[in-house]
Here is the input.
Amino acid sequence: MGAPRLQLNNFGFRRSQSVTLHFGLEAFFMLPVVSLDSHTEFHNSFIKLFLQYYPDPFALSRQTWRTIVQFWNLDLSQTDAILADTYSKYGPEPRTLSCMLRSYLLSLKLKFTSITAWVSELKPNPLYAILSGFTPADVPGVGTFCDFLGRIWNSGSNNLSPKERYKKKKTPKGKKHGDKTPNIKNTAAFRFIEFFKKHPLAGPQGSPLELVFRLYKEQFLGRSVQKGLINPDSISLAGDGTPVRTQARPRYKKICDCGTKHCNCKRMFSQPDRNIGWDSSRDCYFNGCHLYMYVAADSYNDLPVFPLLERASRHDMLSFLHSFFTMKAWLPEYRAAKLLLDAAHDADAVYRYCLSENIQAFIGLNEGNPGKYIYKDTFYLDRDGTPVCVKTGKKFRRDGYEPGRKRWKWRCPLAGRNGCQCETPCSSSAYGRTVHTRASDDPRLVNHPPRGSSEWEKEYAKRTSVERSNKREKEDYKLEDGRHRSTKMRYCRLYGIMMLQHLDAWEMPSTEAFQESMFGHAA
Here is the structure.
């Protein structure tokens, strides 16, 4: 008889040994348990390596020390738990996830525009590696960073739209510089609001932005709330859109074989989420996307709350509606008490929605709409919501506000202590003619506080906070300069910049106090 045949399992081992060897492989490939105190481990690693590579630490510049103080106090321990499920428990041990995120944020802080340039700088500059949480002799490569950013993007596709789509007609440019949307009730704004009210948008669960949004919300936005920089129960939101250029022109190629040079068939686009839009502030076309940002206008540091990258061809009004209802679904615990918008959002439907949701709307008026609302053929409303007498052309005087009925009381401009001085008085009362204006009649002009008053102007002036925030993202942190060609990388860069904006707003110890606590004395 020949030798007995060995029974092999799927791994190629004998069945009698399969259990032992299987558990041996599992123990070899299983990843370690996520550390719950990675911030302390980062501190220990920094202290150990910093003095080793920099025996004279006080030779570093003051700006460098400010960055060290910021990232020393940046606790990213939750990153490991949030991203733990994105890695398999089998395979080689990955880099510490909190260190990967810290290193990426450090590259944005130092204004690096590409991962390749950052990795090439990590090797010759030990401070960057130590401040990231790595050993200078063992830093991650470009592929490791790309793999990390790919895991915080919860989708197998790098873009939100399919690459095969039809060519879109060029966006018509405005008739004049800064042309705004007319104030018509039955516009696209009214239809969009009704659609979103009937069909609420889904939350971040399952979205490609789910993980990067959680990293931002739980470790930065939430901490700003804990520090008292943002009040989520009654937040004053300032919203505005800004063009973001991504490349010089759209890149696509024909995929059909119809033989026609200028056909209407689908094309293959390298960046399907980008198209051509009109920049009304610069009076030129641009190719890229439209960033719509919401900022806490009542925060001292113009802190960003929620962003959305829209198509460049979309108007501010449509971007506002889509991003606002998306923010309501993604941040349901944040209640907007005030809404500060520019004249591009001047639509009757927006005012009436804010009125129904008990939101104070501070919106600039569109210059193309004079807005004369006639009341009983005796007076009309001026642009600031003040009644104007049809006979005399004089404005009525404010005579109080009735909060129970939500209406303003106005008195005849010619009425005084000696009665009405009008030649043809329209009231027999010695007090003079009084009228009332309600927000429900014309919420566009009848506001509380009244449009044009010092209270209204003071609140509306806070709208510029969103413009300052957009400037910081585009100019200071070079949002447009990122050498990325996918929506995934652009969202990662955008959320990373927003994280740094919150980090910059947090109160930090002085450089001298930090040096004294670490070395016993300051420089």
